[in-house]
Automatic annotation (TrEMBL):
One of its GO terms (biological process) is protein import into nucleus. InterPro entries: ARM-like, ARM-type_fold, HEAT_type_2, IMB1_TNPO1-like_TPR, Importin-beta_N, Importin_beta, TPR_IPO4/5. It comes from Ridgeia piscesae. This is Importin N-terminal domain-containing protein. It comes from the Eukaryota.
Amino acid sequence: MVCDCCDWQATKQLKVLLNDRGVVPALCSVLITSRNLQVRQYAAIILRKKLSRAKQWNSLSLDIAMNIRANILQVLLQEPEKGVRKAVVQLIATVAKHELASVKWPELFEFIQQYTHSNLPEQRELGMYVLSAVAATATKQLQPYFPSLLELCGVTLKDNQNYMVPFHTIQTLTEMAPLIETCELNPFQGLIPQILRVISWLVEVDGEKAVEALEIFDELVESDISVIVPHLKTILEFCLNIGATQGLGNGVRIKALSFVSWLVRLKKKAIPKLNLIQPMLSMLFPILCEAPSEKTDDDEDFDEAHTAPAFVASVIDVMALHLPPEQFITPLMKFVEPAMTNSDENVRRAAYVALAVSAEGCADYMKHRYLEKLLQYVYSGLGDSSVSVRNVSLFAVGQFSEHLQPDISKFSSELLPILFNYLNTASHDINKDLRGVNKTYYALEVFCENLGKDIIPYLSSLMTYLMTSLQSTSSVHAKELVISAIGATANAAEDAMVPYFPQIIEELKKYLNPTETESELKVQLQALDTLSVLARTMKKEHFQPLANECVHLGLMLLDKNNDPDLRRCVFGLFSAVSTLLKTDMQPCLAIIVRQMIESVKSTEGLTVHYSEEESRLYHLFDEDIDEDEDADDADEKIQGMTVENSYLDEKADACTSLGELSLETGTAFLSYTDECFREVMKLLDFPAANIRKSSITAVCQFCCATAQVARETTVAEAQTTLQFMLSRAVPKYLKIIMDDPERQVAMVTLEMLGKMLQNVGRPIVQAEGMLDSILICVKNVLQHRATSQDTNGDMDEEESEYDIMMVENAGEVIPCVAKLVSPQDFCSYLVGLLPELLRRTRPNSTTAEKSFAVGILAEIIEACGNTIASFAQHLHPVFMTLSKDDDEEVRSNAVFAMGVLLANSGESMYSYYDETVKNLFAVLNHEMDPRVIDNTISTLCRMILTNGCIINLAEVLPVILQCLPLKADFEENHTVYLCLAQLYSSEVPAIMELLPKVIRITAQVLGTDQITVDVHTLLVNLIEDINRKRPLDLKSYIADLPADLTANLKKQVDIFRH
């Protein structure tokens, strides 16, 4: 084994020898007697591997086991070589794992006690090194000794002569931390100040050891026992100080800052409670302002940052995502605003970075309070003299465009000309400012993609520029950027791209042939992505002729190239084309699904890392693991694993594409559903969060697709498969919601659960106990009891926008369930859920909370029907109050909810009608928002439909007609015009006097996209009925209309065509 040239021969011989009963004594002898240090080292490692499992250790004779215990410590003391000593210490730890539980090795503790209290620094180091190794390998076996070990650590942490002694002490405590119990809490907490002192020492003398020592805080912050809480502020300040010290290496600075980020994630309620946000920003912002190193890219990925300033951007991002926006943005702006005019370009650059990375987490707060100011900053930054500042300003435009919608789109007339001009300037010489071109296209793409149909006024000039650039540029990278921008434009403009479609396809075809060069492959990937976008956005008649050609193109590319990014893009093309081909994809479905399943199952791109010595030895121990053995034993030889991002992206997109294929191809996919479901279910516990999210989505799509097939066909397999999938998927979803540490994974799962309830329906809640389980889970999320929520804070404290979004996702499940069970059954659950919703309608609740809660209550009321009457008197005053809220969305939701409440509560609420009408009139007297006005009108109409006899129609109807046609919430047209039609049918005098206005309003809305077919028919019938009963009156009403309305009425109503 020592000689590389015969490694395979030695491995083969050793495999045979390891099955010999005498191999353990022989290896012990080699360890003691060999003069070759490598031989001794390998002997120790092989012994440890051979004895790692309890079954192997217990199979030794008592004499051999006793001999090992009696001599191994002496071997350690006599061994002069460091590498061999390390291997022997690991062997001691393995023996300790087997022997400590039965208290068979008192000599080990005597050794540790003697050497950790020695007068010689090197002996104290050895004693603590042995203890740290034992703690790492035999943590559970050491647990009964924790009290005495904590006392010992209190002594060894104070060692001032040899920093390795307290370093190994911290290693020991790090291993103990996950198993600390309440009785050991105080002793452990008492060690924190000493731990901080030691790490400060390590920072000065050995940065790598300091990084490793800082791991203890990661363990402590995740501990079930709150060891860290009393020292939270001190530890946070300590790590911030390390992060802010420019003389230190990036490794230790980033490690300290990563703990700050992790702490914000896990203790987000404690940060504002301890008033730490402003002090944190006062330390973080100057780091962000440091001059970037020459090797640092302006657009360095903050999640994989290699410098402290770049990493700080990710810390600020995490703060924005997890802290209440009002408490975070306000102090942040105190640093950003003066920085904008600072003479140092690095300070100005930092200001834009801070705003850009905060946009996702604090979107609502920023767009409602700072949008115009942010845009002024952007305009200024785009004209800055510094290239670095201009580029990061473009990054900010992209972030704002993505997250501050739809508000920022209102400024398209200001922003787009600036971006077009900037694009022209930056593209003249792409090689001079590649980053600038990248950032410009990024900003343009994101802004345009989120504009939707509002891009149409700019479409001609934009497409002219993009097509000219694509045809004229010789830069492969520029082609990639332009093709990507075309895809983003198509996403926004949809069928408005039809005039450009033939030319785009002809250009894309140039890049779709198999290629081997990396630069050309990047262009091909982008061409495939853009082709997928066109398949989704073009009308069927335009892309359908290309659909089968695209399938064959994808299969050919998969056959010619084994690149994971190419497979990912081809999978996306298949799923896009399936929206057109539907069941016609069946001839190719078998090979497509097989390719995708292979990607789902693949371990390609996975690299397992071993230590240098053990990488040569692990093949000796590749036998199967017994089920009753500790699974950790199997992984002892593995130091870590990495997976290339491209393979993770491929796996995620394979899941997404399989899910969409199942939905789009229906019965054609059914025979593949079971295998796809089983394989994707295995990924629900995958380490990477994006894989979990994609697999959760795909599982939902499989269930929804199979339910659709079961409803539309008599295929018995569909019903059987559906029952099987639901029995596995729904309980797993509920577990993920409660236990997954990533908030976004839990949010996606709640969203998919809601979709399954909507699309699969009753089979979900009919399963035994499932109704209870779903609503208990939802209530737990509303009460912040999920793992991804901060369960230690006061629920009445302010929350981050994403925390509120998770609660919203949970709340949206409630009306989905309410629609699937009888109103009587659901109301028994509503008693427990209602307080959680009403708690979010208090005056101190955020706008988002109030809007969400009222919206969900309105949906619940509609689902419950007249059984809601027993709750009406509690809900009515809430809606009355919120109809006067400062936010228009809250007001709109409140008046709508009031209408559905009164419509469904019947007689029990008649006594509240006068009060309600007065309140609604007060709303209309000062309301400017069209949606609020529309919903107020629809509420009045619902009240009339419920019991118009107790309403002063002569007073109310003129007000209603004055506000028609509706301006924003066209879904309410049905309620409004049904009300008017019924009043006319009943020949209510108040409406008869207002028929001229009714006719005018009808002429305005007929033939528009504001009304549905049903409403159109309702209004046409109304006109025809008036014509039958009052033809002369109708003729005079029409004569008074403007010519355009008269023409429209005659066009839309048949009686006027004859």
